[in-house]
Prior knowledge:
The protein has four helices and five strands; from the N terminus they run ααββααβββ. The chain is of the alpha+beta class. Strand 1 (57-66) and strand 2 form a beta hairpin.
Amino acid sequence: MASHVLDVLILVLFGIWGGLTAVAQIPSTKSAWIRKVDVFGAIPEWKFFAPTPGTSDYHLLYRDQYSDGSIGQWREVTFGEERRWWNVVWNPNRRQLKALFDIVLSLQYEWKQQPDAGIQASMAYLYVLNYVSNLPRTDKVLATQFLLMESYGCLSTRKISQLCVSALHGL
């Protein structure tokens, strides 16, 4: 009897969660309250029918200049942990990748607006530089440099492209 009650409670919980998820997909202010009360980010928001769906992935790499003047190899910044099975429904690390996506779009916009002035003074550029500059390092580093790249998946015939290569910045 107790397991039957537990089964019903689980079904009710998933029913409520599914219902709130469906309502949260409606682009209106009537569903905005869900975002306010969803403090754990448990209600997903999907954009299946976005005008321009994402077709590429962005990568952040960095390399350092050491005290002897040598420059190290490019290293990719990994966001979050290795994906697990439960990331289908619970993946708080997705926000880091979304932040990278937003920064790349902002940098591309800045570049189009002021191609001759450069983007080194833009907030997006400074944000990436600050993030890379504060990554933990084991060696004495004099300067760092970052690189933003775009890839299109393993089945694509498009080549990986460089979007932005920063100058060396002292630490």
